[in-house]
Amino acid sequence: MSALAIVSLLLGIYLRHVFNRWAYYPVERTLSDYPTSIHGTPPLVMRGGDPYIRALMRTITASEANDRQPYTIIYGGQHVSDLRRHPEICVPIVAGPNVGKCSTAAGRYQFLDFTWKEKAQRYHPRPSGFLFWKQYSFEPHFQDAVVHDWLKDSRAWGMDIPKELRQGNLDKVLRRLSGTWTSLGYGIETNSMSKHLPKVYQQMLEEELNR
Asked: Which pTM value belongs to this model?
Protein backbone atom coordinates (compact mmCIF):
# COMPACT_ATOMS: atom_id res chain seq x y z
CA MET A 1 0.00 0.00 0.00
CA SER A 2 1.40 3.39 -1.01
CA ALA A 3 2.04 6.21 1.47
CA LEU A 4 -0.77 8.24 -0.12
CA ALA A 5 -3.21 5.36 0.30
CA ILE A 6 -2.26 4.98 3.97
CA VAL A 7 -2.74 8.70 4.60
CA SER A 8 -6.12 8.61 2.83
CA LEU A 9 -7.20 5.61 4.90
CA LEU A 10 -6.20 7.26 8.18
CA LEU A 11 -7.94 10.50 7.19
CA GLY A 12 -11.11 8.58 6.36
CA ILE A 13 -11.04 6.84 9.76
CA TYR A 14 -10.53 10.17 11.51
CA LEU A 15 -13.39 11.92 9.66
CA ARG A 16 -15.74 9.01 10.30
CA HIS A 17 -14.80 9.14 13.98
CA VAL A 18 -15.56 12.86 14.17
CA PHE A 19 -18.90 12.45 12.39
CA ASN A 20 -19.97 9.61 14.66
CA ARG A 21 -18.95 11.59 17.73
CA TRP A 22 -21.28 14.48 16.91
CA ALA A 23 -24.08 12.32 15.55
CA TYR A 24 -24.24 10.27 18.75
CA TYR A 25 -25.03 13.05 21.22
CA PRO A 26 -28.27 15.05 21.49
CA VAL A 27 -28.44 18.82 21.45
CA GLU A 28 -27.68 20.33 24.84
CA ARG A 29 -30.58 21.50 26.95
CA THR A 30 -30.98 25.04 28.23
CA LEU A 31 -30.29 25.18 31.95
CA SER A 32 -30.64 28.89 32.71
CA ASP A 33 -34.13 28.68 34.26
CA TYR A 34 -33.34 25.96 36.78
CA PRO A 35 -33.08 27.06 40.45
CA THR A 36 -29.75 26.67 42.22
CA SER A 37 -28.46 26.86 45.82
CA ILE A 38 -30.20 24.62 48.37
CA HIS A 39 -33.02 23.95 45.91
CA GLY A 40 -30.79 21.77 43.79
CA THR A 41 -28.74 22.09 40.64
CA PRO A 42 -29.54 22.00 36.92
CA PRO A 43 -30.17 18.63 35.26
CA LEU A 44 -27.29 16.80 33.65
CA VAL A 45 -26.89 17.13 29.90
CA MET A 46 -25.87 13.47 29.67
CA ARG A 47 -28.69 11.03 29.01
CA GLY A 48 -28.99 7.74 30.86
CA GLY A 49 -26.75 6.35 33.53
CA ASP A 50 -27.26 5.29 37.14
CA PRO A 51 -29.85 7.56 38.84
CA TYR A 52 -28.00 7.37 42.16
CA ILE A 53 -24.75 8.44 40.54
CA ARG A 54 -26.56 11.17 38.61
CA ALA A 55 -28.02 12.51 41.88
CA LEU A 56 -24.55 12.45 43.43
CA MET A 57 -23.12 14.35 40.47
CA ARG A 58 -25.75 17.06 40.88
CA THR A 59 -24.94 17.20 44.59
CA ILE A 60 -21.24 17.70 43.86
CA THR A 61 -22.27 20.56 41.59
CA ALA A 62 -24.13 22.22 44.47
CA SER A 63 -20.91 22.79 46.38
CA GLU A 64 -18.43 23.08 43.51
CA ALA A 65 -20.18 25.03 40.75
CA ASN A 66 -23.51 26.30 42.04
CA ASP A 67 -24.45 28.33 38.99
CA ARG A 68 -27.21 28.36 36.39
CA GLN A 69 -24.61 27.56 33.73
CA PRO A 70 -22.23 25.24 35.60
CA TYR A 71 -20.54 23.67 32.58
CA THR A 72 -18.86 26.90 31.49
CA ILE A 73 -17.85 28.33 34.86
CA ILE A 74 -14.21 28.56 35.93
CA TYR A 75 -12.66 29.20 39.32
CA GLY A 76 -13.56 32.70 40.47
CA GLY A 77 -16.99 32.79 38.81
CA GLN A 78 -16.20 33.84 35.26
CA HIS A 79 -17.48 31.86 32.28
CA VAL A 80 -15.79 30.61 29.12
CA SER A 81 -17.38 29.94 25.75
CA ASP A 82 -14.89 27.56 24.15
CA LEU A 83 -15.24 24.03 25.50
CA ARG A 84 -13.43 22.21 22.72
CA ARG A 85 -10.86 21.44 25.40
CA HIS A 86 -10.27 22.22 29.08
CA PRO A 87 -9.85 26.03 29.38
CA GLU A 88 -6.53 25.73 31.31
CA ILE A 89 -6.92 29.26 32.71
CA CYS A 90 -5.05 29.63 36.00
CA VAL A 91 -6.95 32.11 38.19
CA PRO A 92 -5.24 33.52 41.32
CA ILE A 93 -6.58 32.12 44.62
CA VAL A 94 -7.43 34.97 46.98
CA ALA A 95 -8.71 33.08 50.05
CA GLY A 96 -8.34 29.80 51.88
CA PRO A 97 -5.35 27.53 52.51
CA ASN A 98 -3.99 27.91 48.96
CA VAL A 99 -4.02 31.71 48.77
CA GLY A 100 -1.22 33.03 46.60
CA LYS A 101 -1.40 30.10 44.19
CA CYS A 102 -3.70 29.81 41.17
CA SER A 103 -6.36 27.32 40.13
CA THR A 104 -7.33 25.92 36.73
CA ALA A 105 -10.60 24.47 38.10
CA ALA A 106 -13.29 24.56 35.42
CA GLY A 107 -16.69 23.19 34.51
CA ARG A 108 -19.52 21.57 36.41
CA TYR A 109 -17.15 19.45 38.49
CA GLN A 110 -14.33 22.00 38.73
CA PHE A 111 -11.74 19.78 37.06
CA LEU A 112 -8.15 20.96 37.35
CA ASP A 113 -6.45 20.76 33.96
CA PHE A 114 -4.17 17.85 34.90
CA THR A 115 -7.00 15.94 36.60
CA TRP A 116 -9.17 16.31 33.50
CA LYS A 117 -6.39 15.00 31.27
CA GLU A 118 -5.80 12.00 33.53
CA LYS A 119 -9.47 11.06 33.92
CA ALA A 120 -10.42 11.83 30.31
CA GLN A 121 -7.73 9.45 29.10
CA ARG A 122 -9.48 6.71 31.03
CA TYR A 123 -13.18 7.56 30.88
CA HIS A 124 -13.83 9.92 27.93
CA PRO A 125 -16.25 8.14 25.56
CA ARG A 126 -15.42 10.04 22.38
CA PRO A 127 -11.86 11.42 22.16
CA SER A 128 -11.14 13.09 18.85
CA GLY A 129 -8.05 12.39 16.79
CA PHE A 130 -6.27 9.05 16.75
CA LEU A 131 -3.10 7.30 17.87
CA PHE A 132 -0.93 9.83 19.72
CA TRP A 133 -2.94 12.93 18.75
CA LYS A 134 -6.06 12.47 20.85
CA GLN A 135 -7.97 15.48 22.16
CA TYR A 136 -10.60 15.40 24.90
CA SER A 137 -13.53 17.74 24.37
CA PHE A 138 -14.70 19.51 27.53
CA GLU A 139 -18.25 19.98 26.31
CA PRO A 140 -21.06 19.38 28.83
CA HIS A 141 -22.01 15.81 27.90
CA PHE A 142 -18.35 14.79 28.09
CA GLN A 143 -17.87 16.40 31.51
CA ASP A 144 -20.85 14.37 32.70
CA ALA A 145 -19.76 11.12 31.04
CA VAL A 146 -16.25 11.23 32.49
CA VAL A 147 -17.44 11.93 36.05
CA HIS A 148 -20.24 9.35 35.85
CA ASP A 149 -17.92 6.53 34.85
CA TRP A 150 -15.23 7.67 37.27
CA LEU A 151 -17.69 7.55 40.19
CA LYS A 152 -18.90 4.11 39.10
CA ASP A 153 -15.35 2.70 39.06
CA SER A 154 -14.90 0.97 42.42
CA ARG A 155 -11.17 0.56 41.78
CA ALA A 156 -10.76 4.33 41.60
CA TRP A 157 -12.34 4.95 45.01
CA GLY A 158 -11.80 1.76 46.95
CA MET A 159 -15.56 1.42 47.41
CA ASP A 160 -18.63 0.54 45.39
CA ILE A 161 -20.26 3.98 45.34
CA PRO A 162 -23.54 2.93 43.64
CA LYS A 163 -23.97 0.17 46.24
CA GLU A 164 -23.20 2.50 49.16
CA LEU A 165 -25.71 5.06 47.88
CA ARG A 166 -28.42 2.44 47.52
CA GLN A 167 -27.76 1.41 51.13
CA GLY A 168 -28.21 5.00 52.28
CA ASN A 169 -24.55 5.64 53.12
CA LEU A 170 -24.31 9.12 51.62
CA ASP A 171 -22.13 10.47 54.44
CA LYS A 172 -19.59 7.70 53.88
CA VAL A 173 -19.50 8.46 50.16
CA LEU A 174 -19.15 12.23 50.58
CA ARG A 175 -16.35 11.73 53.09
CA ARG A 176 -14.48 9.54 50.61
CA LEU A 177 -14.97 12.05 47.80
CA SER A 178 -14.00 15.07 49.91
CA GLY A 179 -10.32 14.52 49.20
CA THR A 180 -11.08 15.21 45.53
CA TRP A 181 -13.91 17.75 45.87
CA THR A 182 -12.84 19.58 49.01
CA SER A 183 -15.98 21.73 49.20
CA LEU A 184 -17.94 18.62 50.21
CA GLY A 185 -16.74 19.42 53.72
CA TYR A 186 -15.20 17.30 56.45
CA GLY A 187 -12.79 19.99 57.57
CA ILE A 188 -10.96 20.55 54.30
CA GLU A 189 -12.71 23.46 52.58
CA THR A 190 -16.23 23.51 53.97
CA ASN A 191 -18.39 26.20 52.38
CA SER A 192 -21.89 27.56 52.89
CA MET A 193 -23.44 24.69 50.90
CA SER A 194 -21.68 21.80 52.66
CA LYS A 195 -24.25 21.37 55.44
CA HIS A 196 -27.11 21.35 52.93
CA LEU A 197 -25.70 18.58 50.72
CA PRO A 198 -27.67 15.66 52.24
CA LYS A 199 -30.92 17.55 51.60
CA VAL A 200 -29.80 18.49 48.09
CA TYR A 201 -28.93 14.86 47.37
CA GLN A 202 -32.37 13.64 48.44
CA GLN A 203 -34.05 16.24 46.24
CA MET A 204 -31.88 15.33 43.28
CA LEU A 205 -32.36 11.60 43.82
CA GLU A 206 -36.13 12.01 43.81
CA GLU A 207 -35.90 13.88 40.51
CA GLU A 208 -33.60 11.30 38.95
CA LEU A 209 -35.65 8.30 40.06
CA ASN A 210 -38.79 9.89 38.61
CA ARG A 211 -37.30 10.59 35.18
From this structure: 0.81
